[in-house]
Design goal:
With about 100 residues, this protein is mainly beta. Helix content is about 10%, strand content about 40%. Strand 3 and strand 4 form a beta hairpin. The chain is globular, with a radius of gyration of 14 Å.
C-alpha cells in the first residue's frame, strides 16, 4: 500500500481475511474501532465485519483469505467512486532488508 493510499469501507458475507503486516504501518478500521498495526502484527477480519484500511507512510502486508468468492465484497454506494488502485510498487533495499530481517 502506497503512502497516503486507502481502501474504502466494505465487508464480506462469506469469507474471512487475515492481514499480516510485513513492513510499515497499517491503520485498520474494524467495525468502528481503529487499530494501528506494525510489522509482525496479524489480525483476522471475520465475516460481515465492516472494515477499511489505509497507510500514512506506506506498508506491505499480506491478505490471506479463507477462500475467494466472486461478488463477496460489499461497499457503501458513496465509497464505490474511488480513484483507481495503484499496483506498481518500487521496493527499496532497506524495505527488503527489513522484511528479511537483515540489518
Amino acid at each position: 500500500m502506497l503512502p497516503g493510499q486507502d481502501h474504502p469501507c466494505h465487508y464480506h458475507a462469506k469469507k474471512e481475511e487475515t492481514f499480516v503486516v510485513l513492513h510499515g504501518d497499517l491503520k485498520l478500521d474494524l467495525d468502528g474501532e481503529t487499530v494501528l498495526l506494525h510489522k509482525g502484527d496479524v489480525v483476522t477480519v471475520e465475516r460481515n465485519k465492516k472494515h477499511s484500511f489505509s497507510s500514512e507512510n506506506g506498508c506491505i502486508f499480506e491478505e490471506i483469505s479463507t477462500t475467494h468468492y466472486v461478488n463477496d465484497s460489499f461497499y457503501d454506494l458513496a465509497d464505490t467512486f474511488v480513484t483507481p488502485r495503484k499496483t506498481k510498487v518500487h521496493f527499496t533495499k532497506e524495505m527488503l532488508n527489513d522484511i528479511n530481517g537483515v540489518k
